[in-house]
Amino acid sequence: MPVYATMEIRGWVKGAPRFLCAHQCDRNLAEVIETKMRKATLFERFFGVFSLGVLCQICLLGVPSAFGQGAPEPAAATAEASSWPETAPDVFKVKLECSHGDIILEVHKDWAPIGVEHFYELAKMGFYDGARFFRVVPGFMSQFGISGDPEMTRKYGEKNIKDDPVKQSNTPGMVTYAKTMAPNSRSTQLFINTGNNTFLDGQGFAPFARVVEGLDVVKKINSEYGEKPNQMKIRTEGNEYLNKAFPNLDYIEKVTFVE
Fold first, then answer.
1. Residues 31 and 126 in one domain
2. What is the count of structural domains for the chain?
3. pLDDT tens, 121-166?
4. Statement: the pTM of the whole predicted model exceeds 0.90
């Protein structure tokens, strides 16, 4: 199968990624170019590759393609998957590069293996890049984990994972999945405990990571909007909604693998 028909081309414009050549129409175009190039002269092959590159640049700039609707408008920078190990290590650190400072998390697979594997895959693909801290209650927690790009939410945010047994306690600095009281309802939303929330332990909230650097940054996350942002609107409209209605929200610019 031709490389350029299957690869995912990623690019950045002012820090915002574009997922390019993802539409079926563009994949079909790549297949047409592949067919023609088999019979082409050396010059024609060069021109074919150049043409495909131009198409990708059009998508990169967000201009609707003549062959489709153009690239979607993700809100956040995509993590460079090449810098991440293929599978989640038993213990590893990630940096949340935030709008107001950096937060480093130490993640432990033995604390909540299902949750860690899910977090690792989401972080690796850039799901949390650009995510706002949309629910902040001082002395309790700061919550994030709905993608700023509705398409990413539709693709990955509907999947629930099974519960992990609670092995750690929800003390300040511990990171835990948000969930409902229903079993196996964890998805992509996370929160950082800023209070001593040990009462959550008995309700099935299983911490999987802890803040090892930047707890002061966590405590400075803007709380002026409290719990006002509408989660359904975030899911359907993404950062476009949040930027208009709650422009001062702090957010994660990018998640990077540390060690």
1. no
2. 2
3. 999 999 999 999 999 999 999 999 999 999 999 999 889 999 999 9
4. no
Helix axes 24-38, 42-60, angle to 10 degrees: 170
Considering only CA atoms, which of 138, 98, 104, 120 is closest in space to residue 250? 98
Domain identity same for 123 and 226: yes
Indicate whether 205 and 163 sit together in one domain.
Answer: yes
Identify the domain containing residue 103 by its residue range. 81-257
Is residue 67 included in any domain, yes or no?
no
Same domain for 162 and 46, yes or no, is no
What DSSP string runs through the chain?
A: --HHHHPPEEEEETTEEEEES-SHHHHHHHHHHHHHHHT--HHHHHHHHHHHHHHHHHHHTTPPPTTSS-----SSPPP-GGGS-SS--SEEEEEEEETTEEEEEEEETTT-HHHHHHHHHHHHHTTTTT-B--EEETTTEEEE---SSHHHHHHHTT--BPPPPP-S---TTEEEE---SSTT-B-S-EEEE-S--GGGGGGT--EEEEEEE-HHHHHTS--TTTT-S-HHHHHHHTHHHHHHH-TT--BEEEEEE--
